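Assess the record.
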Amino acid sequence: MDDVSRDVGIGVDTLVRWRSDSMSKPGRDRVWTAAARFDAVLTTAAMDEAGKSAWCRAHGTYAQQLATWQLNATQALAEPGEARASPLQTKQDRRRIKELERELLRKDRALAETAALLVLSKKAKAIFNAGEAE
C-alpha cells in the first residue's frame, strides 16, 4: 500500500478508506467493463443454473444480466461479415464525404464573405456618418 501511495501521490489512509468504501458497496453498483462481462460469461458458461445463481449472488449481478451479456457476446461473434461495409458501400461513403466537405467549404467561404461585407458596410456607415457630423 505504501508503494501505491508513493506512486500516485495519495496518502495511505485515503487509499485504505477508498478501498473499504469500494468493498462495502454491493456488486450491483459496480460498473462492469466489456472485458469483465466477457470474463463472467466465460466463467459461468459451463455452470448449471444453481451454480450460475450462486455466482451471480457472490458477484452482485442478476442471472438475467448474465444471459443478456451472453446473448450480446454470441451476436457479436456470430455475424462479423455484416458489420463490415462492402467495398461498394465504402466507395459511396467516401464520395458522399467528399461531396459534403466541398459543400461545407463553399458555405464557410460564403459565410466569411458575408461577414466581411457586413464589417465593410458598418465601417462605411461610420465614415460617412462621421463626415456628415463635421
Q: What stands out?
A: DSSP finds seven helices and no strands in the chain.
